[in-house]
Amino acid sequence: MRILIYCQHVWGVGHLFRIREICHELASHDLVLVTGGPKVDLPLPSHVRQFHLPTLQADASGKLYSDDGRPAKQIWPERIDRLFNLFRREAPDRFLIELYPLGRTAFRRELDPILTALHERRLPPCRVYCSVRDILVEKSDPEVYTRRVQATLNRWFDALLVHADPAVIRLDETFPDMAGIHIPVVYTGYVAPPPTPPKDRAVLRRNVGLAADDKLVVVSAGGGKSGYPLLKSVTAAQALLADRMRLKIAMFTGPFLDARRFDALQAVAGRQVMVRRFASDFRDWLAAADLSISMAGYNTCMNLLTDRLPALVWPFNGDREQPLRAARLAEQGWVSILTAADLDPARLAARVQTALATSLRPRAPVDLGGAGCTARYIEAHAQLQPGWRGGT
């Protein structure tokens, strides 16, 4: 079966990591991953072919821009033309769209024409699914947004796949009228990577040069556009912690951190602090760690849940997504939340010292089988039914 997956990241990279886990579970199929955000050095499974559209990304205000300086309005026609040519050439059996129409509304410019053409049989028909995370951000006009999402899903999509455990949070809490969605709504469980085998932990610690009594703290900031205050605070706190314990810090800033800020972190980092933008073996570092300090993005939290790692999280407060996720996971004992006041270096050092001394690893059950469940749903009903029109 041939499957096209559309994943457009404009700010962080969690969307791309989540889709990659789903791709792993679809190993017996021919996959084409359509991306159009800033390029990330992320290894993909061998059965996945990547098709990259002309890049669009967002600035802090949400305005889209290209990586070559052209305004977005000049990029859209080229992207639309390439998408149509791709569909004609590949004739997929399945089309999985990450987030849209519940988010990425600016990209309706290129997705709605494709969906309309599929519906009208001007492109070879295929089943269409929406893949969405657990929490949606606030909208300026919730009523208009809700009606548009319902109409789009009901007209063009075959199912809404929600990558969440409803025992932790339901989509109803951030989408006000689920009753108006008339296609199947499937809770897949959270999409998380497989756990690192426990026997590997000692090997990993030796590989990174840790002594038996060393404490390793892994610090991360997702894509890097929002986490600089946390990273800066950690570099200041490490000087206080160095006098209290044998401590090593591995800091991963994210690929999109401003170059000047990255250089500033390296300049003030102590001898026991390693500062890198990104690492393909990031999961190995987490598996070797005694504590994680991070933000509360979807992908980051799934790593913490998978490895059952003690964690301090500083949720990005630009919208409700990370604060709400962090609050729910804190209620179940998975994470401890850092406030703005905790970014004071002395307070942060105290929080880190307490977390390392306690070192409690949570055990509350959470459904982390979302990648496999998603793959099984997509694989079901392999043949289109006679007269099927898609989204009806």
Task: Kindly describe this structure.
The chain has 392 residues and is of the alpha/beta class. The chain has 2 domains: 2-191 and 369-379, Rossmann fold (3-Layer(aba) Sandwich); 200-358, Rossmann fold (3-Layer(aba) Sandwich). It has helices at 14-25, 72-90, 108-119, 142-156, 200-207, 228-241, 259-268, 282-288, 298-307, 321-331, 345-358, 370-379; strands spanning 2-7, 30-35, 48-52, 57-58, 64-65, 94-98, 127-132, 159-162, 185-187, 215-220, 247-252, 273-276, 291-294, 311-313, 336-337. The strands form 3 sheets. Strands 3-2-1-6-7-8-9 form a 7-stranded parallel sheet, with helices on one face. The model is unreliable at 383-392 (pLDDT under 50).
Report the CATH superfamily of the largest domain: Glycogen Phosphorylase B
Q: Work out the helix count.
A: 12
Proportion in helices: 25-40%
Task: Report the CATH C-level class of the largest domain.
Answer: Alpha Beta
Q: State the major sheet.
A: 7 strands, parallel
Return the CATH architecture of the largest domain: 3-Layer(aba) Sandwich
* End-to-end CA span: 22 Å
Mean pLDDT: 90
Strand order of the largest sheet: 3-2-1-6-7-8-9
CATH topology of the largest domain: Rossmann fold
E-strand count: 15
Shape: globular
Low-confidence stretches: 383-392
Q: What share of the residues does DSSP label as strand, in percent?
A: 15-25%
Given helix and strand content, the structural type is alpha/beta
**What's the domain count?**
2
